[in-house]
Amino acid sequence: xxxxxxxxxxxxxxxxxxxxxxxxxxxxxxxxxxxxxxxxxxxxxxxxxxxxxxxxxxxxxxxxxxxxxxxxxxxxxxxxxxxxxxxxxxxxxxxxxxxxxxxxxxxxxxxxxxxxxxxxxxxxxxxxxxxxxxxxxxxxxxxxxxxxxxxxxxxxxxxxxxxxxxxxxxxxxxxxxxxxxxxxxxxxxxxxxxxxxxxxxxxxxxxxxxxxxxxxxxxxxxxxxxxxxxxxxxxxxxxxxxxxxxxxxxxxxxxxxxxxxxxxxxxxxxxxxxxxxxxxxxxxxxxxxxxxxxxxxxxxxxxxxxxxxxxxxxxxxxxxxxxxxxxxxxxxxxxxxxxxxxxxxxxxxxxxxxxxxxxxxxxxxxxxxxxxxxxxxxxxxxxxxxxxxxxxxxxxxxxxxxxxxxxxxxxxxxxxxxxxxxxxxxxxxxxxxxxxxxxxxxxxxxxxxxxxxxx
Length: 455
Description:
- The chain is of the alpha/beta class.
- Among the domains are: 169-198, no CATH class; 200-364 and 399-449, Glycerol-3-phosphate (1)-acyltransferase, CATH 3.40.1130.
- Helices cover 42% and strands 8% of the residues.
């Protein structure tokens, strides 16, 4: 080897690559299995280790990149241990040019490291190096230095547990997913009620109170308890006056309230139903005031005609107390429709009549008796006796959860008649009978389609 070659000899973890190991006589030279780098040999007695000569600046500058590549490859993990061993063993077994001229050109440590770097790295080792975060691609990086990936992993904040918001949880349980919108609407409603910023028509109808408070009390009954299904609601016009005529049953007038909820919530135009109620309703304390606030009025032709001319949806139950208070044995059998006053109002205003059939109300309070003396004492048309009332006390007032159907029939047009036709008793009787027969036929058809009273 020349002087430059001697100067190019580098230390690999403290061991010179071109120095042979001292071995006892009679034993072959070997290394422990699994060793990734040569260990420093112990100095034998009487053997002096040669002191390397100090290279000149030009040689040191030329060999510095090679030394850095070897050091970075071993300590940084760019090459595997087997490749380093091959490079070291190859450099040891390479004979020097001074000892054997025909052994071929000698491989320098830089060439050995370059040859080892060209060998493909196993997939497992590559994944291990990539996940370890060491600076494998930076020459000269020490074994204890951290790369950018390690610093990013250490600076990455640990995810914190979500904060439990009690107000949000309670709001979602009570008002559902849109509880914030409902809460804001409720606060705005209270502000308007306190300041008096709301409208009431000539009949006492408070539209905002009805939609936000009164109907909200009955929506759980409509949607979850009675599970009302509406059919033919598209037959009700989106605008203009219309007269809804339906059968009446159930001991308590819940069928009228369920019809009002159906039109307010499920009609495309969300129309408000204005009912024509008996006089006794408005004489009852608290009930009469709420009826006025809900937009209902007396069952008389002048009030009905005024509402129809104003383009309102008017509801009438011609059976009256005869229908709502009939015995359970007469269920779904229509009673007499009176003298046909609702037909006269429709003829004078030229509004359509929509026959409506309600199935399910007959079973909520099966009436099996009547306490007439108590009814006369209280001024009520009847005091019913049901399988649960008065035997269970206040619990007997809970209705049975029957399955409901509300079917709106095709409208009967009255615009082709002259307003004076309302004074023709035969025409009024024929139209009244037509409406009654339509409702009765619809009731029979719905009863045949119903699978069960409660399902």
